Amino acid sequence: MDKTQAAPFRQQLLAQQSELLAQLAAQRGGVIGRAEAAADHFGQPEDPRAQVATERELEFALDERETAHLAAVEAALARIEAGTYGECTDCGTHITAARLHTTPEAARCVHCQEKAEQHRRAA
Fold first, then answer.
1. Consecutive 10-residue runs of the chain (123 residues): their mean pLDDT?
2. In terms of C-beta density within 10 A (0-12 exposed, 13-18 middle, 19 or more buried), how is residue 43 classed?
3. How far apart (Å, rounded) are the C-alpha atoms in residues 35 and 70?
4. CA distances from 30 to 1, 19, 52 (A)
5. How many angstroms separate the CA atoms of 21 and 2, rounded?
6. How far is the first Cα of the chain from the last one, in angstroms, to the nearest whole number?
7. DSSP string, 42-81
8. C-alpha distances out from residue 96 to 34, 39, 90, Å
9. Contacts of 38 (CB under 8 A, 6+ apart)
10. For a Cys staple, 108 with which of 24, 94, 98, 112, CB 3.0–4.6 Å?
């Protein structure tokens, strides 16, 4: 797919990137670090320790998920620049437009994505 064909996907990816960066900044407390934000957010004297630990784990898991999603978006933007966007990174076949419209950061065709997920579950 050439850059002209990829332009609508690029716009979608840039919007996702901006949204994810804003979410991560809000979760991390803006200009302060994640550890400081967590310390401010959790650990009120009246909170049970188990509740604080559970909430902290959930927040870190969400942060990790959004960070991974951001990496996938940035990798897709790099593939657009390289001229390889829309090609499966595993087998090299064309990723369908329907898949890219739904998941513009997709790096694999449906078949290879299913294989990767099965392998991940088995590990």
1. 91 95 76 53 60 65 82 97 96 96 96 95 89
2. exposed
3. 20
4. 37, 14, 21
5. 27
6. 34
7. S--TTS-HHHHHHHHHHHHHHHHHHHHHHHHHHHHHHHHH
8. 38, 45, 15
9. 56, 59, 60
10. 112
Checking phi first, is residue 86 left (phi over 0); if not, alpha (psi -120 to 50) or beta? left
CA nearest neighbour of 100 among 32, 7, 27, 26 = 7
Residue 35: predicted pLDDT: 53
Coil, strand or helix at 9: helix
Cα 54 to chain centroid distance, Å, stands at 22
Q: What is the pTM of this model?
A: 0.74
Neighbouring residues of 45: CB distance < 8 A, sequence distance ≥ 6: none
Q: Pick the closest to residue 25 from 70, 90, 75 (CA basis).
A: 70
Helix axes 34-41, 49-82, angle to 10 degrees: 150
Under 8 Å between Cβ of 43 and 52: yes
The residues, ordered by sequence, that sit 6+ positions from 91 with a Cβ below 8 Å of its Cβ are: 109, 111, 112
**DSSP for residue 93:** P
